[in-house]
Amino acid sequence: MYAVTLAHPQLDDRRFYCPTPGALRDVVWGAARAHGQPITAEGGRDSEMIAEVGDLRSRADIDGIGTLAVFDFTVTVEPVGTGTEFDCEGGHEGEDAALLGGPTTCDGRCRPRPRFGHQALTDLVCALDDAELDESGGCGACGLEAGQMCVGCGRCNCHRHDGCARPAEGSR
Fold first, then answer.
1. What was the pLDDT predicted at 163?
2. CA-CA distance, 23 to 8, in Å (whole number)?
3. What is the mean predicted confidence (pLDDT) over 42-60?
4. What is the per-residue DSSP string for 21-45?
5. Beta carbons of 39 and 29 less than 8 angstroms apart
């Protein structure tokens, strides 16, 4: 199992867990797809990406960490020792810990490990779109581009416009 972190200059890091090499490939290909770049055999990147992900996995297995640049994303892969579907940040290391003299119950900080799927890809694409709008002077939160802001005050739909003094119809 691998812990995968997607880092992007405009987004908070996103962390996923991949139980198989195929799941790892899905995360890497998802980062490319989030940028609108298809990964197809016709585009010539299909076999290249398979080799790059294989090399990334090998670096993670051998060196303990592997990184790969996918457009604006940096994909960091680290092997995770346990293959369970839960990640515990508390004083509990799984069922075997009790047998070895450790605590028999978790202190409550176990949580499911997030997997990369269709919803994660959709969230990634939306976050990139929102960040792009914010960078261009628009508002990602309400989806307005820079030229679509309120004529009266120049603010977006995230704000109330009760006191806006709108210009007369023919004054533009």
1. 77
2. 20
3. 82
4. HHHHHHHHHHHHHHTT----TTTT-
5. yes
